[in-house]
Amino acid sequence: MDWVRGEAIGHGSFGRVSLAVPRNQSTQVMVVKSSSASLSDTLMNEKLILDEIKGCPQIINCLSDSYTYENGEKLYNVLLEYASGGALSEKLKNSGDRKLPEFEIRRYTKALLKGLHYIHKCGYVHCDIKPQNILLGEDGEVKIADFGLAKRAESHDNLRCELRGTPLYMSPEMVTAGEQDTPADIWALGCVIAELAAGVPVWKYTDLTQLLMKIGVGDELPEFPAKLSEEGKDFLEKCFVKDPRKRWTAEMLLKHSFIANQDDTVTLNDERCMSGTPTTSPRCPFDFPDWVSDDSAESTVTCPITSLPSPAIQELMNYNGGSWSTEPAERLRELLVGETRPKLSDWSAADGWVSVR
After folding, report:
1. Which residues, in sequence order, are CB contacts of 3 under 8 Å at separation 6+?
2. What is the rounded end-to-end Cα distance, in angstroms, of the chain?
3. Is residue 208 domain-shared with residue 284, that is, in the same domain?
């Protein structure tokens, strides 16, 4: 596809994001993600995965890729469909009280689950579900985006010594054991839902060590928004199960009464509240009859972290002799040893962050 680059609209650890149009058709707007060809592993990974999982309406569509030479540099470019509604994080930030009404949350949740179910069925884990990576189309339809950190499910080779994704949305098993499979996406989904309802991330923290300790050690769970319905709280309980083997799957959650009766055709401008008699929510897996824009991080809890920086990763590994401890509590306890623990102020600047692979 022959195309023309437009204005820059964002950037990430991989490179920059710009608007683009086909050279001979100025009415079609696209998005192009570009990086130096020598540093394009993340973008190439995203392109390969999007090609394999194409066809799901809840996943951003990849149009093509290409190499270009600009200002003496060879760039790798991935062309994506343009989601004109922006990121869900922006919608949340721009809402009146920085939180969304429950009928909208239910609708978004159902669409996200459809996308996650498709991703998992195709054999992949997204690894970085968060409001910044959930885009909205012109009519408010959900589009899961940014698959640069995605990986094959049950693929653990060479991953045990690395954290993958965004700390605020990491699952306990990722923090304590470096394990990230499909249940990790469900934990992150719960974090997103709670944040949409409360207007702030689920964890309060002062530094990276404190955050990881909260997630990985003990029985503490994210706080449920007080105004969320009992159905919503029950839904979150199914997402926030410490043991990933007992956490509900996307397929199971699609049958939960919190979202089972939601109408996917409702647009962003529809102000009516979702109604209808809810079905009884299954209480355990055996109750089912059949189975078939980049935001800069800030030091406040009102803005999600966008990525875990490589200096923090190295700091964590240094406390463990270059590798993760085999005992989760011991591994995280070691983070508290020493006088130079990684503080939030040390890694809050987005310009210094890189994707953690």
Report:
1. 20, 21, 22, 23, 30, 32, 66, 79
2. 30
3. yes
By C-alpha distance, which of 9, 20, 29 is closest to 70?
20
Please tell me the distance from the alpha carbon of residue 293 to that of residue 9, in angstroms, as a whole number.
7
DSSP, res 25: -
CA torsion through residues 172, 173, 174, 176, sign: positive
Q: Tell me: do 59 and 135 sit in the same domain.
A: no
Question: Any idea which residues carry the catalytic annotation?
Answer: 128
What's the pTM?
A: 0.76
Would you say residue 86 lies in a domain?
A: no
| 294's tokens | 């980049």
- Same domain for 70 and 108: no
Say how far residue 293 (Cα) sits from the centre of its chain.
13
pLDDT greater than 80 at residue 139: yes
Contact 168, 211 (CB under 8 A): yes
* Residues 83, 60 contacting (CB under 8 angstroms): yes
User: Could you tell me where the DSSP H helices lie in 100-229?
Assistant: 102-121, 172-177, 182-198, 208-216
Strand partners, 275: none
pLDDT tens per residue across span 306-344:
334 434 444 444 434 444 444 555 555 544 443 334 333
294's CB contacts (< 8 A; 6+ apart) are 10, 11, 12, 17, 132, 306, 350
Q: Which tens digits make up the pLDDT trace of 43-81?
A: 999 999 999 999 999 999 999 999 999 999 999 999 999
Please state, as a whole number, how many other Cβ atoms lie within 10 Å of the Cβ of residue 57.
14
Query: For the chain, what is the radius of gyration of the CA atoms?
Result: 20
Say yes or no: 335 and 283 in one domain. Answer: yes
Last residue of a domain, one of 81, 113, 129: 81
